Amino acid sequence: MLDVEVIGIDALDGDGPSAVEVEELCALALSSGGILEGHLAVEFVDADRIQELNREYRQIDSPTDVLSFGIDEDGPAAGPRELGDIVICPEETEDLREAVVHGALHLSGMDHESDDGEMLALQAELLRWIR
C-alpha cells in the first residue's frame, strides 16, 4: 500500500489539489514506474524554504518549483520502503498537479536531466489522463 503524507496543503487556501488528489497523483505516477508500496511525504513550502533547500542540495541559490529527495531508492529497506520527499513551492509553480506528478516520477527513479525525454513524455501522458 502507498502511504502519502501531505504537509502544508492548508496554506493553499483551496487553490490547488486536495490532499486526496495529491495522494492519487502520487499513486498514479509511482505505479507507472512499478512502485505500488511505500511511504512518501509531499510538502508545500514558501519560496524562502525551497530556495534554502535548492542552495543546500543543488548549489543553486534561487527558488524552484519542485524538489524530490529519494531515500531508499533501489536499495533494500528494513521495513516499509521509504520512497522520499517531494517539496513544492506554489509561488514558483504554474501547475501544482504537474509538480506533484513530476516529483513522484523522480522518486520512481526517472530523471529528465539524463534520459532521452521518457520522463517528460510520461509526465505529459499522465497529465492528459487526469484532465
Question: What can you see in these coordinates?
Answer:
A 4-stranded mixed beta sheet has the order 1-2-4-3, with helices on both faces. The chain has helices spanning 19-32, 47-58, 96-107, 118-130; strands at 2-7, 38-44, 66-70, 82-88. The protein is an alpha/beta fold and 131 residues long. Strand 1, helix 1 (19-32) and strand 2 (38-44) form a beta-alpha-beta unit. It is built from 4 helices and 4 strands; from the N terminus they run E-H-E-H-E-E-H-H.
- What would the principal axes of the Cα set say about the shape? globular
Computed over alpha carbons, the radius of gyration is 14 Å
The biggest beta sheet reads: 4 strands, mixed
Q: In which order are the strands of the major sheet placed?
A: 1-2-4-3
Give the integer mean of the pLDDT values. 90
Number of strands: 4
H/I helix tally: 4
Fraction of helical residues: 25-40%
Q: What gap, in angstroms, lies between the N and C termini? A: 25 Å
Low-confidence stretches: none
Q: Assign the structural class, choosing from mainly alpha, mainly beta, alpha/beta, alpha+beta, or little secondary structure.
A: alpha/beta
- What is the percentage of strand-forming residues? 15-25%
Q: Provide the succession of SSEs.
A: EHEHEEHH
In brief:
The chain has 131 residues and is of the alpha/beta class. It is 39% helix and 19% strand.
Spell out the key features of this protein.
4-stranded mixed beta sheet; 131 residues; alpha/beta; 4 helices
